[in-house]
Design a protein that fits this description.
Elements (H helix, E strand, L loop, with lengths): L3 E2 L10 H11 L11 H20 L7 E4 L2 H13 L6 E5 L4 H11 L4 E5 L9 H7 L4 E5 L13 H10 L3 E5 L11 H4 L3 E5 L10 E5 L25 H38 L3 E2 L10 E5 L5 H10 L2 E2 L15 H5 L4 H4 L3 E4 L6 H25 L1
Parallel strand pairs: 1-11, 3-4, 3-5, 5-6, 6-7
Antiparallel strand pairs: 2-8, 7-8, 9-10, 10-12
Helix pairs in contact: 1-8, 2-8, 3-4, 8-12, 9-12
Length: 381
């Protein structure tokens, strides 16, 4: 039986070179980075080096990188931390944000803020006309992700940021799915804050960062010893932070080559999908090169994922972080996809370890599964 992992948007395997960089800090270099002795100094130097590596990948300065436990915490730190400094006005977030932006924004709506969901087009891009309309009202915060975790569609963040700044709002982007797949430049995007995560680019789980404009005032959501410039207290997870830095350096070296290779694999996949009659979501918009989101009319996405898993293929029904829900994807509903078709959605996300043979084998397996499920559906009807 073939085995292939096609769920890299959920998480990636830790690259061997990243693991090698981490191991000394799990073994002999176990000091607390806040300690004043030799062990602590070694840990602090390692954290500082990682801060430089992360900053370098996104064109920021090391001092702007605030390490967190991951993307969820970084998104919450921006939304809650910035809101705590502002008087409640409007918070505008796209209708396709990850729950770790959408939910804290909903929380603000219970504290006197007006929550405005920005519309997206049928192709899955944030509608700039709706951004203009939204910013007609006094707005404190705007958050639009850089690449959608389900469709892979790249969002017009720089254009949103220009409009938001003109309106006097703080603007943030969740760049978790874009990092390592396409060039990400903090300055060029002109945002005030950006969220990153290690485990989406062959680094470890448990490390992320909020990159912040030096003028941005944030209130910490975790209080303690004042680590990370007072914005994120808690003893630094040195091995994971070191791994994050190493993963960013690796991404910088191979992004172009890897992106081109994965785009070719996706092109072959999508040719096969179209031949089978699949609907591919967001295909007309610019996308990160590794992601394809599709559905077959009348076939349940969850059933497709289960059947493919039995054959050794790991894909996802919707987003990993909300895959316990049987509700259709909020992203697809925002794009105007009918709930029945949205329930059929399957996400296929490629990574460094995948090759053309695996894609060909997957297409052959998928054709068999689709035929079988269609037959079962016809019998049920």
């Amino acid at each position: 039986m073939s085995h292939a992992y096609f769920d890299h948007n959920a998480t990636t395997p830790v690259d061997e070179r990243v693991l090698d960089a981490m191991l000394p800090y799990l073994r002999e270099q176990y000091g607390n980075a806040s300690s004043r002795h030799e062990f602590g100094t070694a840990a602090r130097k390692a954290v500082n080096r990682a801060r430089e590596q992360v900053a370098s990948l996104v064109g920021a300065q090391p001092v702007q990188v605030i390490f967190t436990s991951g993307g969820t915490e970084a998104n919450n730190l921006f939304v809650r931390g910035a809101a705590a400094y502002l008087k409640p006005t409007q918070i505008a977030v796209s209708g396709i944000e990850h729950p770790c932006v959408a939910k804290p924004a909903q929380d603000l709506a219970r504290q006197g803020w007006q929550l405005r969901k920005l519309a997206v087009t049928h192709d899955g891009e944030v509608d700039l006309a709706d951004v203009n309309a939204a910013l007609g009202a006094p707005t404190g915060l705007v958050s639009v992700m850089l690449a959608n975790n389900e469709t892979g569609v790249i969002q017009p963040v720089a254009a949103v940021a220009a409009r938001a700044r003109d309106a006097g709002a703080w603007v943030h982007t969740d760049a978790v799915q874009a990092l390592g797949k396409i060039p990400v430049d903090f300055g060029a995007l002109a945002v005030h804050a950006m969220t990153l995560s290690a485990h989406k680019l062959y680094g470890p789980k448990g490390a992320g960062a909020l990159v912040v404009d030096k003028r941005l005032e944030l209130k910490p959501i975790l209080h303690g010893g004042g680590h990370e410039r007072g914005l994120r207290s808690g003893t630094e997870n040195v091995p994971a932070i070191v791994g994050f830095g190493a993963a960013c350096e690796l991404a910088a070296q191979r992004m172009d080559e890897l992106g081109g290779r994965l785009a070719a694999l996706r092109a072959r996949l999508e040719t096969g999908l179209r031949e089978m009659g699949a609907m591919i979501f967001g295909e007309r918009a610019p996308r990160i090169p590794n992601t394809s989101y599709f559905a077959f009319k009348g076939i349940d996405g969850e059933a497709l994922v289960i059947e493919l898993d039995k054959l050794g293929y790991a894909v996802a029904a919707g987003a990993a972080c909300s895959s316990t829900s049987t509700e259709p994807s909020a992203t697809l509903l925002a794009m105007g996809v009918k709930p029945d078709l949205a329930r059929g959605a399957v996400r296929f996300s490629l990574g460094a370890g995948n090759d053309m043979r695996q894609v060909e084998d997957f297409l052959a397996a998928l054709a068999g599964v689709v035929t079988r499920l269609k037959r079962l559906t016809a019998i049920a009807v």
